[in-house]
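for the record, two folds in this file. i put them one after another cuz i was lazy. first one right below, seq on top, structure tokens after. the second one comes after a little note so u can tell where it starts
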Amino acid sequence: MTMAAIQDLTAEAAPEGPRERAPSRLGEAAFGFVYWVLIVGALAPGNWVNAVGMGATPHLAHEVLRVAAAGLLGSATAPIFFELSRRFPIAAPHRWRNGSIHLVAAGLAASILIIAGHVLALWFLEPAHKPSLAGWRDDLAANELLVFAGVMALSGLAHLRQSRLSAAPPLQPPRDPGLVPLKVIEIKEKGRSQMVSVAEIDWIEAQGNYVALHVGKRALLLRETLTRLESRLDPARFVRIHRRDIVALDRITGIESAANGDAMVHLKDKTALRVSRIYRQALKRGLAALP
């Protein structure tokens, strides 16, 4: 591994948060629901006044249903924009390209929300009317800009959250300075035990309550958490590259930068593994320290 390859590994890296957390899709959807309920609810009084001014008789139950439906529709889009903020951050060197992706996604999401809201409003509030192209066109013309602004604001909040997670350097698992790194690991299977030399391990993968020790073409399951096992490994030989993966540094043969700020490492056995941005600096330090 050359120093040029190591430097290329972090050329496009952006610092990230303390650890790569598994995103809570339910929490992101709940945030989207509350977000759109607040926005549409804030517009409801104005719609009510306009309806009365035009001689219509608005119904409170209908308005509540309309606001709730808007929240449910919006909650379906929120996890998408949180995921986009993670995969396509608006930061150098891909600021313009990633920004364009967010603009297109916001435009599509706004159009879908308006059309779906139009259909739901007619089916549940005015069942005597049927959705029509003319109605969709009118709704798009009247509300596209407003909903687009709301979607872009949601995207901005997703990026703000991601940037706050990116504010601190990655935390390393606690290590006992007096603890001797593992040399062998005992694998128990069907009442039998086998001893696996740590030096033979190519990479380690989290699989629920187990970790898979990849030794050549074999994958040996050990009932252990990845974080706990990491604290027992020699940090000069093993480094975490993803919330699910640990790799042996001397098995790495090449590194390939990815467009979204991540990277791929290629191992001697032809395995390719993704490197999350939050672990790229640790990987660089580990590779630089190899003899």
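(here's the note) second protein begins now
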Amino acid sequence: MSKFAVILPAAGKSSRYHDKNYKKPFAPLADRAVWLHAAEKFLQRKDVKQVLVVISPDDREYFNFKFASNVAILGIEVVVGGQERSDSVQNALARIEPDVEYVCIHDAARPCIVDEWITNVFEAAEKSGAAILAIPVAGTLKRVRAGQTIEATVPREGLWEAQTPQVFRRDLLLKAYAARGTKPATDDAELVERLGHPVTVLTGSTLNLKITTREDLRLAEQALKALPKPKFQGPAHPFADDDMWR
């Protein structure tokens, strides 16, 4: 059985979430924080040997106060992130255990993942070295000028919206990060693409949504009700994870 490590980036600024009490990964969703929903889907898997959550230096005190018990009980490692998302992932890569063969990056703010999708992308990465979930673009795409008028309609044939998990052979991902330079990358797959290595795309689900706004949180709550429940039954927090900790 291959060994996987999972990195959950949660160091973003949540600038579009607009909640004075919470950043989006830490917001309460169906009795626990968003990031814990994401983490528990991986913790119950025998092929996952390490789970790391990456947080902003600014959130360290809050995170320790609110989630120290979760981290200790569930065996999750906490990594302090960097300036950009890629910096945060690179910090986590430095903490991966030596015997791990594959690295999975999954958005901490994407709580509605299920075991079947994880298995599919893990198996694809074992075959090709790099695999992601994505969904075909369904809507009509418009390129818009600065003045909020349409410049052009963009053909959607062959266009997919990338999701996570994104899974890579460890040595390949380390090589991609070593070569990233200063050019920004919107996701980890882009760094691997720059090496010329093919990235397998598996069809994901619209239910695998990323929390960006507070409306997304309400949609995620309904999605969780429709999705299969995780097998993992460990405690999320010894005192429960509710607004008493706000």
